[in-house]
Amino acid sequence: MKSIFNFVSHCKVIIILSIIVLFLLDCSNPKNEGEYYANILPKTRLSNVIPLDDTIQTENPRVTLYWVGDDPDGYVVGYRYRWNFRLSKSEPFQYKPYSIILNLIVEEFALMVQTENPKLIPPIYKYFANLMGNEGLEQSQEDSLSRGDSIWVLGSRVFASNPDSIRLQTGHRIRYMFPVHDNPNMGTFIFDSQDTLNFHTFEVSAIDNIGDTSMTSAKVSFETPQVVPPHGHVEDGPDDTVLVLMDKTPTFNGILFRFQGVDPNSRTIDYRWVVDRDKWLADSGYIPWSDFSPTEYAYVTARNFPDPYATSHTFYVQARNEFGSIDTVGITRNPDGDITDTAWYNFYTIYPQSQIPGAPIQEKILIINNCYNNYYPSPAHPAYATVDSFYRDILLGLGKPDSVIHFWRSGKNPPDGPGWPGRGEIGKYTMVIVTADVVNEYYLNGQLLDATRLQILRDFCYVGGDLIMSGWELTSAFNMQRFAEFYSNIIHVNMGTIQLFSKEELIRAAGLLEYPDLFIDEAKADTAWQTGMKHVWLNYPVGFGEIIHKFDSKSNTYPIENGPISIRYLGVTFNSVYFGVPLFYFQRPAVDSTIARVLEDFKISKERRNP
Questions:
Q1: What is the maximum alpha-carbon separation in the chain?
Q2: What is the pLDDT of residue 451?
Q3: How many C-beta atoms lie closer than 10 Å to residue 587's C-beta?
């Protein structure tokens, strides 16, 4: 009984003591009811700077800074930073807008958020953190960030500070070389440097998981030096009058200029360019500079001119270094003060009359006579004038008025001869006929069609001119230089498969694609080859070239029998026909019908491309 009594007594004591404790604590009515502990703000510090009371003087305006952030009762979701500057020593200081970077790496991207509200950063941070913890970043988002494009997350614009490339206003993309951020704890910034020394204060704050920022930003002050602008110069441009069109076409890429910048203080340089700067400014009040780009060349079209049909122009280029300093002087002088280099280039253009939009087509035909001139002419060995008359009579008979037919007799370059029509001259015509029908006893034409002359013909075709070529052994390297682009892109002859058969074998050029057969005119035939023309080459087509004449061999000899001789090309920009036989030595009216067929083909081709 006594033990039971003692147990009950002890229980009573414990109960009474518990009631007293509860009463003292007043648990039924706590004094901080409904309140939470106050959020402890994150702290930020810069990790590679000297004490705040000192001012750094940097060697250049590019400064790399490192920072870290801590949050005792949460975690850091991002950082925001800015710095001050002034335009001159007499101007007040002003701040650049805040930039915000998320405190995480997403698929190797350092992500920037374009917003002025730090409260939006925690949900955006959680959005990417959840993606990384689950299915990962969507492929479309990853592709956009890699391209330097923006994506939208919870109503905010997000982009990568370190994309693979960036897109210019022109739509072109360039490789992105030097990002501001490789990770959220560092940044490489280029600070203004318009004065000899420029004072700046950089400040960075951490953003915690509820969107609060550090009460006191981490700061550092420094002075950056003025940077000497780079020097840009034009290295190369057209050395002759060039043909130009309003826009690029499948064959006209524009007028090529090459330029370069020199700056011993900068690791990167980009460029912008304009044509006829002063004319633009006078006419419209502004200068339409191109986008800055690291590309060291530019293709110019007439659309880049204030007057597309003007003939005299100046190309300007400006170089900019990585600090944003632009070459606005554009000249280099030697110690004597003489100009040794410039960032501009004078050039001349011709806009083909036949290609002017809306202008009436004024047909003009230029016949370039590249035949050997016999000073003691005979029917088989005529002089220049006889060949000229041959082609004039054909064109007149086909309804072409004499006023549209013009001649150029090629020869040695001036001052030793008439040379070759330049681009400024050849651009006046809608069609060029090159005849090299007459050769001397060594089967050489009057003058070698070298690469320079073929380039002029190429450029004429590239801007829409039509070309006819006729010659004896013209594809021989002794008569026409092996200029691959002209063979493959203009006359569409495979330069690697042309073949010569020197015996007197050709008795007929057998026509295809509605072209008539051509037979040798015995009245003009030399007694040495009247039973069969020798030195006729086989010309195999390439690309969209089409065979219009085949070799009819007197002895049916392989491989020349039925081998290709003449090639036609009907293109989206120009047309061409290459006759592998000298038309002058073949019978009329078959030659007349052949030229008529060419003109009809050219007409149909133009109608198809311009319905």
A1: 161
A2: 93
A3: 16
